[in-house]
Design a protein that fits this description.
Belongs to the MscS (TC 1.A.23) family. This protein is α+β, with helices and mostly antiparallel strands and about 800 residues long. Helices cover about 70% and strands about 5% of the residues. Among the domains are: about 5-40; about 50-225, no CATH class; about 260-350, no CATH class; about 530-605, no CATH class; about 700-780, 2-Layer Sandwich (Alpha-Beta Plaits), CATH 3.30.70.100. Residues about 1-45 and about 815-820 have low confidence and may be disordered.
């Protein structure tokens, strides 16, 4: 590559990057400056001519007709007003429910949570009605301001005209204009007044809702505080015994009458109930149809063995949150179904009989305990229930701990888990006995719901993973190479996302289970709103999560689009691998940049702030990031000019050779023929000399030196070498092979065979084949390849070496003839 062209491209890229920091930014500052200039430069509006006034009075008629058409198009607010009346009625019902629960004990916490969820839903409904009203009221207010400006303008003209008003046409124009403006303002006012009244009603409803939410939060906080205090008699005291005796004499106080559903519940949630039933029926039918196939697969056998449980758990886990906080008995039904389905699924994965029995007992206890709370059973009976089951739990799990320790190979994780469960039961038991009944009830409720949520979450993770695997296998991947080649990676990404959603859902419900928040929506909102303020911006966890999701989505989209382009779109033509890689890399950089900017925008950073960051980066580049930017710009040059492509064989400045395997944003990876990876900064590839053996043409000239002994027939040797080259199908015919007699060497006559081959990658294989053929033909033709010959001349030798040499050169003495006896 010519040096002048390289540096011109680098300078151009640097100017483009620097210009992007100074040309794009500062919209607010520029707008403010333009507004200031416009304000200072615009003079007072001159008084129009009489002809213009008369003409403008005529256009007012058309503007008034347009106003009448637009106001007639505005929808009637009667339906909106009726919906607000219904919302107001629900708010009044909330007050009644709160007043009735104000004197209840700890068992009213779930009812308070239900009321808070209903209030939240009503608030969202009112917010939607307010948005609808705003769509109608905003244009009406704009029209009113416009006609008030016209009235003021015509009044100013009237005051400035003076004697010109004596003209009949002018006076008539002003009279007609005044009448039409008054008519327009009256029309707008009649339309605006009821809207403002409705707006006032919305404000009153929102104020009452805020007051109710504060009241509920105060009541819940009081109950959470009361739960940590005692005040109830100990379990073995006479006072507690007297409470049980009183309940036995008045059985009507044991359970409160409660409707199965609240008024309007089925009307509002009928679609959701139908949807859950449809999902259950479809899943059950499909599982029963493929039951024999699923049973024969070890990791999917549970789908065929427990089809009803799977079909129940999926719609309950996936859709129940849409109920908000359902009526108590309906919640009890859903909880029972979910508990039974979870227990059935979990027992399929567990081999130990005592663990399966424990799961069934846990689910049964949880359902019974939630039923006691929902039905409003007196606290004395709830304490007795807690005493019995926690005592049994301490005995049973304590016995299991001792049995596990006494085993041959105790699993210490299982032992510590059992110890933790035993400790939890013991704490609940002790607090219940000593009179902290509220705290014991809260611990029991939280522990049961935590265990249930963890079991359900694990079961849903397993179900989701299996469902995604089956879904990926059923996709038609035959013609879609990207899906076929990346099925495992796509599945892994989907499993990661689904697991994250399930864990998030479980964590939100755990916060509710331990009464840190009333409903899951409050828990999610509180977690996502946690943050800190930086330079006037409040950065919350929710914003960071949204930005992370956007960036992750940008990377996933880039990865998917790169795969589709490389394997399904660009591979259909005759484009080489390097060109395809350059295109997909540019697409990747563009998508990541767009995703980064959208993520910054989602976090509240404006364009001018990004410009400030760009200026700071410019200063940093000037001081310490020159190499990074140089490598980045050089990478762009490599992508656009493509002097080096993936798959090219290059020789670096230090003599190392290898094949380019990756062109990165900062560096290029070269794999040597020994499979060593060399990471070369892109700046070095642009600024230093690099030999590319396969840039424009993959063919190359192969040179094979040959030496034969002195006395060999030169013509025979050249004829043999030419025959070897011309008869090989790997050697190109054009350019023709060439045999040269180069030199009289020290030990041989030196020849050279020069041939051209089509592919640089096959040079060593072709060279080996040609040398073997040359050796075979030389043996047939008795052409000798000599050994290297060297003559050694001794100038001086020490006496010891000379004596040894002389002794070796002297002939041995004759053997002595033995004498005969």
């Amino acid at each position: 590559m010519p040096i002048s062209r390289t540096w011109s491209i680098r300078i151009l890229c640097c100017w483009l990057i620097a210009g992007s920091f100074f040309v794009i930014p500062r919209p607010a500052v520029c707008a403010e400056g333009d507004a200031t200039v416009a304000e200072s430069a615009s003079p007072a509006e001159p008084l129009p001519t009489l002809a213009e006034m008369v003409y403008q009075s005529g256009t007012l008629s058309q503007q008034l007709a347009t106003l009448k058409t637009r106001t007639a198009d505005i929808n009637s607010l009667q339906k909106l007003d009726q919906q607000l009346d219904q919302a107001k009625l629900r708010v009044e019902q909330f007050d009644s429910r709160l007043t009735a629960m104000n004197a209840d004990d700890l068992q009213s916490y779930q009812q308070l949570a239900s009321v808070k969820s209903d209030i939240r839903g009503t608030r969202e409904t009112v917010a939607r009605l307010a948005a609808t009203l705003a769509e109608n009221i905003n244009p009406v207010e704009t029209w009113r301001r416009q006609w008030l400006d016209r009235k003021k303008k015509w009044a100013q003209w009237h005051a400035q005209l003076g004697d010109d008003l004596a003209l009949e046409s002018v006076a008539s124009a002003f009279a007609r204009a005044t009448a039409e403006i008054d008519e327009a303002l009256n029309l707008v006012t009649r339309k605006l007044e009821p809207m403002l009244a409705i707006q006032q009603k919305i404000g009153d409803i929102n104020a009452r809702i805020d007051s109710q939410r504060e009241r509920i939060d105060a009541m819940m906080a009081q109950q959470r505080g009361d739960a940590l205090r005692g005040g109830t008699p100990t379990i073995f005291s006479r006072d507690y015994l007297r409470q049980l005796i009183d309940l036995s004499h008045e059985p009507g106080k044991i359970a409160k009458p409660m409707a199965f559903t609240e008024k309007g519940f089925f009307a509002d949630k009928a679609w959701l109930i139908v949807l859950q039933v449809v999902v259950f029926a479809l899943l059950l039918g499909r599982l029963r149809r493929h039951g024999p196939e699923l049973i024969n697969q070890a990791n999917r056998r549970f789908l065929g063995k427990r089809p009803v449980s799977v079909a129940l758990l999926v719609p309950i886990f996936a859709l129940t949150f849409l109920y908000g906080t359902p009526p108590p008995l309906w919640r009890m039904l859903i909880l029972s179904l979910a508990g039974v389905a979870t227990a059935r699924l979990m027992t399929h994965f567990v081999a130990e009989r005592w663990i399966r029995l424990s799961i069934y007992i846990l689910v049964t206890v949880m359902i019974l305990f939630q039923g006691l709370l929902i039905l409003g059973i007196p606290l004395a009976l709830v304490r007795l229930f807690i005493l019995v089951w926690t005592g049994a739990g301490v005995v049973f799990f304590g016995w299991r701990v001792r049995k596990e320790i006494a085993g041959e190979k105790p699993g210490w994780r299982e032992v510590w888990a059992l110890r933790l469960v035993t400790l939890m039961f013991a704490i609940i038991l002790v607090t219940d006995i000593i009179g902290f009944s509220g705290f014991a009830t809260q611990l029991m409720d939280g522990a049961m719901r935590t265990a249930m949520l963890l079991l359900m979450g694990w079961a849903m993770i397993r179900l989701t993973r299996t469902g995604l695997e089956i879904g990926m296998e059923s996709l038609p991947m035959g013609s879609f190479r990207f899906l076929r080649n990346n099925a495992n990676e796509i599945l892994a990404r989907l499993i990661f996302i689904s697991n994250a959603v399930i864990v998030f859902f479980v964590v939100a419900n755990l916060l509710v289970a331990w009464k840190l928040y009333a409903i899951p929506a409050d828990a999610v909102q509180a977690v996502l709103s946690f943050g800190l303020s930086m330079g006037g911006h409040h950065i919350t966890l929710g914003l960071v999560l949204v930005a992370g999701i956007i960036l992750y989505g940008a990377f996933v989209l880039s990865w998917s689009l790169q795969g589709v382009l490389m394997e399904n779109v660009l591979s259909r033509g005759h484009m080489d691998t390097g060109a395809r890689l350059s295109i997909v890399r540019l697409v990747h950089y563009a998508l990541i940049l767009i995703g980064f900017l959208i993520a910054l925008s989602a976090m509240g950073f404006e364009l001018q702030n990004i410009t400030i960051i760009g200026g700071a980066l410019g200063v940093g580049i000037g001081f310490g990031m020159q190499n990074i930017v140089n490598n980045f710009v050089s990478g762009l040059i490599l992508l656009f000019e493509r002097p080096i492509k993936v798959g090219d064989v290059v020789q670096l400045g230090d003599g190392q050779q290898g094949r380019v395997t990756n062109l990165g944003l900062r560096a290029t990876t070269v794999q040597t023929f020994d499979r060593a990876e060399i990471v070369v900064p892109n700046g070095d590839l642009i600024s230093s000399q690099v030999t590319n053996w396969t840039l424009g043409d993959r063919s190359m000239r192969l040179t094979i030196p040959v030496g034969v002994a002195y006395g060999s027939d030169v013509e025979t040797v050249m004829r043999v070498l030419m025959a070897v080259a011309t008869e090989s199908d790997k050697v190109l015919k054009d350019p023709q092979p060439m045999v040269l007699f180069l030199n009289f060497g020290d030990s041989s006559l030196d020849f050279q065979l020069r041939v051209w081959i089509a592919d640089f990658n096959e040079r060593r294989i072709i060279q080996s084949a040609l040398i073997r053929e040359i050796d075979r033909r030389f043996r047939i033709g008795n052409v000798e390849i000599p050994f290297p010959q060297r003559d050694l001349h001794l100038r001086s030798v020490d006496d010891t070496a000379a004596d040894r040499l002389n002794s070796k050169e002297a002939p041995p003495p004759p053997a002595a003839v033995p004498e005969s006896e």
